[in-house]
Amino acid sequence: MHKSNSKKVSAWLLGAVFIAFLTVFSLFDQPYALAQSEIPLVATESVSTPIVSPEPVASPRATVAANVQHLLTTNECVGCNLVGAQLDNANLQAANLAGANLQEAELERANLQGTILTAANLEGVDLSKANLQGANLQGANLFDADLEGANLLGTDLQGANLQKADLQKTNLTNAKIQGANLLEADLENAIVPAGFTNQYQ
Questions:
Q1: pTM
Q2: For 6-25, what is each residue's pLDDT tens digit?
Q3: Closest C-alpha to 139, from 112, 111, 108, 160
Q4: Nearest Cα to 158, choosing from 175, 140, 173, 178?
Q5: How does the average pLDDT of the chain come out, rounded?
């Protein structure tokens, strides 16, 4: 009788251990199966990412012409590419052109009164007879620029590069030119600030 009961208990224990083993095995197996089933989903998501989040589209103002239009409409074009822009006689009073690239642009007789041109690139630009009264040109590059006959009354040219610039007949009354590079600049018949001496001559 005891032997029969012990056999039953042993069989029951053996069955319980087997069921426990199957349960544990299935628990270990499920994450693996789940991971396997998720692999295609991850791959699908990575493939579809460019569709959901496309690459940034090129700026709508990528061309000089578009930048000029933006400038004339909003009176600002900070850091814009305006290389060779035709802006003769343009009214850009108080415009913000900080850091803009205006290399070889045509600004003859333009109204730039009070315009912000800090750190702008104006190399080789034609600013002859332009009105730059009170403009901020701190740190601007005016290398070889044509400023003949320009009005620079009260203009801030501190730290500007005016090397080889044509400053003939310009009005520099009250202009701030401390730290400006005037090496080989032409100041013939220019009205210079009181006490001004060109250290580069």
A1: 0.68
A2: 666 666 666 766 676 656 55
A3: 160
A4: 178
A5: 82
Tokens standing for residue 199: 């250290």
Question: Which two structure tokens, joined as six digits, stand for 27?
Answer: 């628990």
Sign of CA dihedral 168, 174, 180, 183: positive
Residue 57, SS3?
coil
Residue listed under structure tokens 């600030």: 193
CATH architecture, domain defined by 61-201: 3 Solenoid (2.160)
Concatenated DSSP letters for 135-182?
A: -B-TT-B-TT-B-TT-B-TT-B-TT-B-TT-B-TT-B-TT-B-TT-B-
pLDDT digits (tens, 9 = 90+) for 108-131: 999 999 999 999 999 999 999 999
Structure token pair of residue 104: 């070889």
